[in-house]
Specification:
InterPro entries: Cytidylyl_trans, Nucleotide-diphossugar_trans
Distance between the termini: 30 Å
Order of helices and strands: EEEHEHEHEHEEHHEHHH
CATH class: Alpha Beta
Structural class: alpha/beta
Protein name: Acylneuraminate cytidylyltransferase
Number of strands: 9
Pfam families: CTP_transf_3
Helix content: 25-40%
Length: 252
């Protein structure tokens, strides 16, 4: 039973243009994300899932240069892109890693891979209150295939609704997560200029060009320096409101 970590990346972005190739400590955001993902231990593949558009050629090149596998697929439909990637690599279980989440925690990714296989679930999400950007989702490819059969839209950026709200799947939350990873006053995802400033400050403090500082150590630093989370936390409600507006469940 093969497990893969899928890093979902497109080069274009409206709120923070070219964020994937912006540089921190001389390395692109994508390089730093791939290095973070490669610290997880429970995966057969780390796959950068991008599109077939020429604009994403650079994404594929950077991913290959940094030792990740690459799948190029559907531009708009993230679920179909994942399904086709899973078919190409013969994957059974997937944990997702958004290309925006530079400090997504490898330990939690490993836990997601373990739990989706051991608990008989189709889909696992982050528990309420987990730091935004610390963990996203885990799911079986069998459930992913079913979702792609029943959906009637290619607008699947907010893909979770097809697993959670159809009543067809066994859904759970990531369990046994340490309290240090829960904090609603810390935002760790890259969508706005303030987010880029937030990440830059942390990378510069730790001088972590390998992006290998454990999340618990980063959180401890932020607790000692509350002015840094204040750089971007005011963007969180706007971020959540935008996600809500883009969430649509359209079935066949």
């Amino acid at each position: 039973m093969k497990k893969a970590l899928f890093i979902t990346v497109r080069k274009d972005s409206s709120r923070l243009p070219n964020k994937t190739i912006r540089r921190i400590l001389g390395r692109t955001v994508l390089e730093l994300v791939v290095k973070r993902a490669q610290q997880a231990k429970n995966f057969d593949y780390v796959v950068v899932c991008t599109t077939t558009r020429p604009i994403d050629d650079e994404v594929a090149v950077v991913a290959h240069e940094n030792g990740a596998d690459v799948f190029r697929g559907d531009f708009k439909d993230k679920l179909v892109r994942w399904r086709d990637a899973a078919r190409q690599f013969s994957i059974d279980y997937v944990v997702t890693f958004d290309g925006d989440d530079l400090f997504c925690e490898p330990h939690l990714l490993d836990m997601g891979a373990e739990q989706i296989a051991a608990r008989g679930l189709d889909f696992i999400e982050a528990p309420e209150g987990l730091i935004c950007g610390a963990f996203t989702y885990a799911f079986t490819v069998k459930a992913l295939e079913k979702v792609c059969e029943i959906k009637a839209s290619d607008d699947t950026e907010m893909m979770w609704t097809y697993f959670k709200d159809t009543g067809l799947f066994k859904v759970g939350i990531l369990e046994n997560v340490a309290p240090v990873y829960f904090n609603n006053e810390i935002r760790m995802t890259l969508d706005y200029p303030e987010d880029f400033e937030f990440f830059t400050r942390i990378f510069e403090h730790f001088d972590c060009v390998e992006n290998d500082v454990p999340l618990e150590k980063i959180v401890a630093y932020l607790n000692e320096h509350p002015e840094i989370p204040q750089i971007n936390i005011h963007r969180q409600q706007e971020f959540l409101d935008n996600q809500k507006k883009k969430t649509h469940l359209i079935l066949r």
